UniProtKB/TrEMBL annotation:
Organism: Luteimonas terrae
Lineage: Bacteria, Pseudomonadati, Pseudomonadota, Gammaproteobacteria, Lysobacterales
Integrase catalytic domain location: 433-634
Residue spans of biased composition, Basic and acidic residues class: 764-782
Pfam families membership: rve
SUPFAM superfamilies linked: Ribonuclease H-like (SSF53098)
Listed name of the protein: Transposase
Region (Disordered): 737-800
GO molecular function terms attached to this record: nucleic acid binding
InterPro entries in alphabetical order: Integrase_cat-core (IPR001584), RNaseH-like_sf (IPR012337), RNaseH_sf (IPR036397)
GO BP of this protein: DNA integration
Length: 800
């Protein structure tokens, strides 16, 4: 039976039974609710009810580190749920909140008038001192589609659509219910929330001294000022300080419509009403520029619009030349005396006979064949689809339909759905339509606040070892800053991507910049969605966002880095696989394996120098390089500041499965026995909690015991001492590879003994059966028995 902890680990979420759960229990005790209702609400919030993102093919899932709850929350969307989570973190009236809450036994309405009972998962349950609120998060387009498809369940109240069954269910239990949706152009608001939350995560509002706050207030008492003007007037004031004060509502500004990093346009106010008035003026113009077409032109066809222009030109020409109007023109003039295009437009798009020429049975057969064969990907051409449709109609005794009718039905199938059924997630991502820019997220406003990390296999064969002619490929990890597009971390090693390489690049980022990112954007690879990453994120308060599978556009910065590396580096070095992709058109002498001549140690030096030093210094159209932007003095700096200490080394090392320490021999792991005086002393005084193998040094193991952290080494410490970081990685990889090959090719001695005993017992049993059937054997037959079937007393063998 799977435990609750294991289920939470599989979901990637955290248990709600922590600080937030205690706050909820205390809040329920202070209310006059029936005991059954209180227990039901507690059971709803004990843990997330479902795995998020199963149906969200385009969403970026975020494992958000909530300070208010004291535990992470797995949020289904960046543009919707994450934005609301930031707002709840800022709201001082919110005590705690839970996500993915299951409301059980909800009475729902069906279109045929019948009722049925079901479970509905709500996005949030918000705990305030005076209320408990269920919140369902949807964007405007989704709410409109639900209202059209389920008019009996969705109603409008106070200008917002509400789910009637959930509203009734919440009122019966004394809860509030509401829906929440982001507005257009809320990407600026989300970016500002991320920057303010990052500033508050590091220091809190108390990080700004009272003397500095007093100087800011003196400047703003006369009139509002921009952030740039405040920075010029007040020494030691930074943009991060302004973001801190905005988060704590000490200062106010147009946070929803102007980015905080836009210091020349962002005005700061002491009065909230003045800030809202200024923001309203900016918002009115912004929404007007981004509003869709609502006039008659939006629904007019090309023919109707062109006819309106022709009519207007003819009537104006008649007036200018004094020509008498004919009967047709008089009728138009009477209908549109002001000669507006809207009144002069025709309505040809509404005319015509649109009655179906095919029967209801033909419609059903056509729809079923299109859904199964065309949408499911069984056929790839329209001709094949026409043959299958007409064949199905003939079997049902119906008349065939035209090719135009079948093509019209096929065009109604979404390209994304068909691509998903044919090519999986990667096919879906390549065929899906682009998102509306008005609802997209923006880049981070502070350096190191958000990083993109990914890996790729180098398109080049190299010599892995110095003393052994073995060819292979290396894996490159790159970390790109989402604010400046600068390359801030690099790791490279042999073999495939794994947790060792991931821990190595996190160490590289901390060594170079002294910070971890506030939010890490990665794909859904096994090493990136593992418990190893979750433990590092929980320990240092780092949020992790997971891009959809096959969606290169979501992490375009790091994908661009790999494209540049392949074009500028690997394709120009010996051993490149560029000719391998051309197939038989290129002779085998010019392909990767035949031309490989570069040692991997030399490859790492070349790639690291180009990726970290040369490519980031390529200037853009403005003549500024990403490295110059990153090194700007007045640019806001984010991230989680940590030091490269032993604790960080422990958490970035790969966990081991060993559970105990021998007080005399030390720690026995798959890579050898690790011993140190400190380890043996800790084993005598306490118990082992966890052991980890260092991701870079093969001779080092980190052990956490009940009495503290200790180090231990194996016999390879003398070989690893004095080696470079790359040489240690190569030594680590070689030991793992050789050990795995040895275990695979040479079975252990104990296994050989067990196999021999099993064969002997099997032979003895076969001989006994033969004696029972054929009678006792003669002495000659006994002498011819093979050695493997010599009789062995069963009592000496035991049960095998």
């Amino acid at each position: 039976m799977v435990s609750g902890a294991e289920r939470r680990q599989r979901r990637g979420g955290a248990s709600n039974c922590e600080h937030a759960y205690e706050v909820l229990a205390q809040n329920l005790r202070s209310r006059d609710l029936p005991k059954a209702v209180s227990e039901e609400i507690l059971s709803m919030c004990r843990e997330p009810s479902r795995r998020v993102g199963d149906r969200a093919l385009t969403n970026v899932i975020t494992r958000f580190q909530s300070k208010k709850n004291g535990s992470p929350r797995l949020l289904e969307s960046t543009t919707v749920e994450l934005q609301l989570a930031y707002e709840l973190e800022r709201d001082s009236t919110v005590l705690a909140y839970f996500n993915q809450v299951a409301c059980r036994r909800v009475e729902r309405f069906v279109n045929n008038g019948k009722h049925h009972i079901s479970t509905i998962t709500v996005d949030f349950l918000i705990v305030r001192e005076d209320s408990l609120t269920l919140v369902e998060c949807k964007n405007e387009d989704r709410l409109e589609k639900l209202r059209e498809s389920k008019p009996q369940e969705w109603i409008y109240a106070n200008g917002m659509p509400l789910h009637r069954p959930l509203l009734k269910w919440a009122e019966e239990r004394g809860l509030r219910y509401e829906t929440w949706c982001p507005r257009y152009l809320d990407g600026i608001w989300l970016s500002n929330l991320e920057m303010m939350f990052g500033a508050a995560r590091e220091e809190g509002v108390n990080g700004v001294t009272q003397h500095l706050i007093a100087r800011i207030e003196n400047q703003l008492r006369v009139s509002s000022k921009t952030i740039y003007e405040l920075l010029q007037c007040i020494d030691k004031l930074t943009v991060q300080n302004i973001a801190l004060l905005l988060w704590g509502s000490v200062l106010y500004g147009p946070e929803r419509r102007i980015r905080i990093s836009d210091t020349t346009r962002f005005h700061v106010f002491l009065n909230k009403e003045a800030a809202e008035e200024h923001e309203l003026r900016v918002e009115k113009q912004a929404l007007l520029d981004a509003s869709p077409v609502t006039s008659w032109i939006a629904n007019a066809s090309t023919v109707d619009f062109s006819r309106a222009i022709e009519r207007q030109k003819a009537l104006l020409a008649a007036e200018d030349h004094g020509r008498a109007l004919n009967r047709y023109e008089k009728r138009i003039k009477k209908k549109a005396p002001s000669l507006d295009l809207q009144d002069l437009a025709t309505s040809f798009h509404k005319s015509g006979n649109r009655t179906r020429r095919i029967s209801h049975g033909q419609i059903e057969i056509l729809a079923s064949v299109v859904k199964e064969d065309w949408e499911g990907g069984a056929v790839s051409t329209l001709s094949t689809l026409c043959s299958r449709v007409n064949h199905a109609l003939a079997e049902a005794g119906c008349r065939p339909v035209s090719r135009t009718t079948i093509a019209r039905a096929a065009r109604k199938v979404k390209d994304e759905t068909r691509a998903l059924n044919i090519g999986g997630m990667r096919g879906f991502q390549s065929a899906r339509t682009a998102s509306d820019p008005r609802v997209r997220t923006l880049m981070a406003q502070a350096t190191l606040e958000s990083l993109q990390i990914d890996s790729t296999v180098a398109d080049q064969f190299v010599l892995l070892y110095e003393d052994k002619p073995k060819l292979g490929k290396s894996t490159v990890y790159v970390a790109v800053d989402c604010n400046t597009k600068d390359y801030v971390g690099f790791a490279m090693g042999p073999g495939e991507s794994d947790r060792n390489a991931l821990g190595s690049i996190l160490r590289d980022v901390v060594r170079r910049h002294g910070s971890l990112p506030g939010r890490l954007l990665v794909d859904r690879g096994p090493e990136l969605t593992s418990k190893f990453v979750r433990e590092i994120a929980d320990r240092y308060g780092m949020s992790v966002s997971f891009a959809p599978t096959g969606s290169g556009r979501t992490k375009s910065f790091v994908e661009t880095a790999f494209k540049r590396a392949n074009n500028l580096i690997f394709d120009e070095l010996p051993g490149s696989t560029r000719n391998d992709k051309k197939g038989r058109s290129v002779d085998g002498r010019f392909k990767g394996r035949a031309t490989a001549a570069l040692r991997m140690s030399r490859q790492v030096e070349i790639v690291e120098s180009i990726i970290l030093e040369e490519i980031p210094r390529i200037t853009d159209d403005e003549g500024i390089s990403p490295r110059d932007r990153f090194n700007e003095v007045d640019r806001p700096r984010g991230g989680i500041r940590i030091s490269d200490d032993d604790e960080f080394m422990f958490w970035t090392s790969v966990p081991s499965t060993s559970q105990r320490i021998d007080p005399c021999r030390g720690l026995r792991l798959s890579t050898g026995t690790y011993v140190s005086n400190e380890l043996l002393s800790a084993a005598r005084r306490g118990q082992m909690v966890e052991a980890r193998l260092d991701c870079e040094d093969p001779s080092l193991a980190w052990v956490r015991t009940t009495v503290g952290f200790v180090k231990a080494w194996n016999s390879e410490i003398y070989f690893a001492n004095g080696l470079s970081l790359h040489e240690k990685k190569m030594m680590h990889f070689r030991r793992r590879t050789e050990r795995a090959t040895k275990r695979k090719e040479q079975p252990g001695q104990a296994d050989s003994i067990r196999q021999g005993l099993a064969q002997a017992v099997k032979g003895e049993l076969n001989e006994k059966k033969k004696i029972e059937v054929d009678g006792p054997r003669s002495d000659e037959s006994k002498a011819t028995v093979p050695p493997s079937r010599i009789s062995i007393p069963y009592d000496e063998i035991g049960e095998v």
